[in-house]
Write a structure and sequence with these properties.
Layout lengths: L3 E6 L4 H15 L3 E6 L12 H19 L2 E4 L11 H14 L3 E4 L7 H13 L20 E5 L13 E4 L4 H9 L2 H4 L5 H5 L7 H22 L1 H8 L9 E6 L8 H7 L3
Parallel strand pairs: 1-2, 1-4, 2-3, 4-5
Antiparallel strand pairs: 5-7, 6-7
């Protein structure tokens, strides 16, 4: 069965950081994947902003989509200004319905950034409505509520991330590194967020690019180490040697697949 997956991230880089590995594996298996940034990222830099930055980040998102073999879309909403309005709920529901998604990915609603939180809220609020025949009637409804999953994070309140499934990404880590390198506005520029504030960043362009890329990839190593037992459950003894992983928590508002279905929905 061919699956259709749509992933929502608050900015043009969030889906890539949290799900580029699994997206590459889904695509290699013949499934269809789309990344959607719910804002245009037009304040995510310290030396440029507004329209020029939005255009730059949209181009970067398309570049990463080409690397992964997926589709990408960036919504024209200002960075830092996403709100859980009825209009935005309709937009998210339309996107899920247009894609006829089997699986939806998004942020959890407990997060440091309001755009992350409200992206999660909007997906949760659209969950039932995507199958409602008389909501946004210009787009056919989904035949059933898709399964919804949250990206991993390290926030502890009101409750910590609770993974339902984990995916080893050692075999596609070079593609994920390429995605990071394709987004210099965020991960290489001297005046990018990490370039400005990440401790120990080198001053030279090449050193800075490599340092930030490796720091970001190490977060996937942290996921593998934190959920090592889940890797062993899924991959057997081989799970003890897996270096990089992406993990996902099942949202209670979407379809609730069984453990056996989970193993089939997510690639190995």
């Amino acid at each position: 069965m061919s699956l259709r997956i749509i992933a929502f991230g608050a900015h043009p880089d969030d889906c890539e950081l949290k799900a580029a590995g699994v997206a590459a594996k889904w695509t290699a298996a013949g499934h269809k994947v789309k990344f959607v940034a719910t804002t245009n990222g037009d304040v995510g830099h310290f030396a440029m902003g507004g329209g020029p930055l939005a255009l730059r980040r949209t181009a970067e998102a398309q570049h990463t989509a080409n690397i992964l073999g997926i589709e990408a879309q960036v919504l024209d909403i200002h960075d830092g200004e996403l709100l859980p309005t009825l209009e935005n709920r309709r937009t998210i529901a339309r996107l899920i319905r247009e894609w006829q998604a089997d699986i939806v990915l998004c942020h959890r609603t407990c997060d440091y950034h309001p755009d992350h939180r409200y992206t999660g809220v909007l997906v949760e609020d659209a969950a039932v409505l995507v199958a409602a025949a008389f909501f946004v009637t210009d787009v056919p409804p989904c035949p059933r509520n898709p399964a919804i999953f949250y990206y991993s994070d390290t926030f502890k309140k009101p409750y910590p991330f609770d993974p339902a499934i984990i995916v080893a990404i050692d075999d596609v880590i070079e593609q994920k590194k390429a995605c990071i390198e394709a987004m210099p506005s965020q991960f290489a520029d001297k005046d990018s967020w990490q370039g400005r504030y990440l401790p120990g960043v080198p001053d030279d362009d090449e050193g800075r690019k490599n340092f930030i890329r490796d720091w970001l990839i190490d977060r996937d190593a942290d996921v593998a180490n934190r959920y090592r037992e889940l890797l062993v459950q899924r991959y057997g003894d081989a799970g003890r040697n897996i270096k990089y992983a992406e993990a996902f928590e099942l949202c209670q508002y979407g379809r609730q697949p069984s453990a056996a279905e989970l193993a089939e929905l997510f690639p190995r």
